[in-house]
Design goal:
This protein is of the alpha/beta class. It is 36% helix and 21% strand. The chain folds into 3 domains: 80 residues, Rossmann fold; 176 residues, 3-Layer(aba) Sandwich (UDP-N-acetylmuramoyl-L-alanine:D-glutamate ligase); 136 residues, Alpha-Beta Complex (Protein-Tyrosine Phosphatase, Chain A), CATH 3.90.190.
């Protein structure tokens, strides 16, 4: 939503918005002179020509009801993004259950290295410049395409990437079959589709002294090139292959692709090392699906082999925790020390699923080290009993825990 606000402002619209709490996104909007209210501003709604509604907003939201009763033109986030994308010659849309943010940013970085001037719409913040939006020319529009509420079906991609499909967003899709049907519709709307890593192989994968990935990439039996990424998680080998396949279809030479990948610094909160006054090794990762968390745990164990790993997870939505409960249990059942922070509810009420507290109580039957924390003070007090040299802290989740940690000066 913050990216859309900035894009519409660049198109000449006067833009304002509202949110529940201050965040990195609202601060970014303030930097662009876009006012964000944290309470209902009925006059702004009445003055608006059009209103764009986030997928997180439900039909019982007071602002939504007021805008609807006032007869305002209402558009979903997906509809607004689709409308903007029509201004570009080639829309490159990256979708999938995992890896789409990083893959989107990789493709953008490669196009930059190729001398192009693409426009970027991203669901995260580039480490290079701290932006989740970059305004370029009208040739390429590189966008992260989210399947939630079928938002990605508002796009008509020249080239689409589908990194993977796993059971996700069941609060909307209800069944995995319906989710697969939506991805099939997305395929049919795309002129070119990249959806597998076939033909490429990774060899001699290892981490350097800083934890960065190094490996040899083969296409068939032929070595394509060596890659030394500024990234840690091993899943990025797959993200690289998707980016390579996509950029080749855009006629980018292999040596430029290599340059783009090796110059890519990553996306914020994707296994990002954080500064902490109390601990030397603190990682924040956006992982909120069992598969993503499992990958983050694997990377942490490989990089910090001789350290005690403490995993702090804030579940994102009650419904996801309920729908994927067994998968979450499989991940945390054998995790060394899993800690859980109160659920980031987003668009939901507790009765719509399973809370972090309830999940912890279930897990404790199999893992006695599991602990639940309802507030940051008690969580930080527990963590501070450990020595900095002894442990690695891995914060995982798509909620507001990192923001809370920053506000409490636990992260700086």
């Amino acid at each position: 939503m913050s990216v859309l606000a900035i894009m519409y402002q660049n198109l000449g619209w006067q833009v304002g918005g509202s949110d529940e709490v201050e965040s990195r996104a609202t601060l970014l909007l303030n930097q662009h002179n876009i006012d964000v209210d944290f309470a209902i501003n009925k006059q702004k709604i009445l003055d608006a020509d059009e209103i764009i509604v986030s997928s997180a907003i439900k039909s019982n939201n007071p602002q939504f009801i007021f805008a609807k009763d006032a007869g305002k033109k209402l558009f979903t986030r997906g509809q607004a993004l689709g409308r903007i994308s029509e201004n570009y010659d080639k829309v490159i849309a990256v979708s999938g259950s995992h890896g789409k943010t990083t893959t989107t940013a990789m493709i953008y970085q490669i196009l930059l290295c190729a001398g192009k001037n693409p426009t970027l719409h991203l669901g995260g913040f580039r480490i290079e410049d701290g932006n989740n939006f970059v305004l370029g020319d009208n040739e390429y529009f590189v966008t992260e395409a989210c399947e939630y509420c079928d938002n990605f079906l508002n796009l008509k991609p020249y080239l689409s990437v589908i990194t993977n499909i796993e059971k996700e967003h069941m609060d909307y899709f209800k069944t995995f079959e319906r989710q697969l049907m939506s991805f099939e519709k997305f395929r049919k709307k795309s002129s070119i589709v990249v959806e597998d890593c076939k033909g490429f192989f990774v060899r001699k994968l290892h981490h350097d002294t800083d934890g960065s990935l190094m490996f040899e990439l083969y296409e068939g039996r032929e070595k394509l090139f060596d890659l030394h990424l500024k990234l840690c998680e091993e899943i990025n080998t797959q993200n690289c292959i998707f980016a390579i396949k996509a950029c080749r279809l855009l006629n980018i030479p292999d040596h430029i692709i290599k340059l783009g990948l090796e110059s890519f610094k990553g996306v914020g909160s994707r296994f990002e090392k954080m500064s902490c006054p109390y601990f030397k090794n603190v990682i924040c990762d956006y992982a909120h699906h069992p598969t993503e968390i499992s990958k983050a745990l694997c990377s942490a164990r490989n990089i910090y082999r001789n350290k005690k790993l403490i995993t702090i997870f804030q579940p994102h939505t009650f419904s996801r925790t309920k729908n994927l409960c067994h998968e979450f249990l499989d991940v945390f059942r054998f995790t060394e020390m899993p800690l859980f922070f109160k659920t980031y509810s987003a668009r939901e009420n507790p009765d719509e699923g399973l809370s972090a507290k309830e999940f912890t109580e279930i897990l404790q039957k199999d893992n006695s080290n599991a602990k639940y924390f309802d507030d940051f003070e008690s969580l930080s007090k527990f963590l501070l009993q450990f020595s900095s040299d002894e442990v690695v802290l891995l914060f995982v989740g798509a909620g507001d825990l990192p923001t809370i940690a920053h506000k409490n000066k636990f992260l700086t």
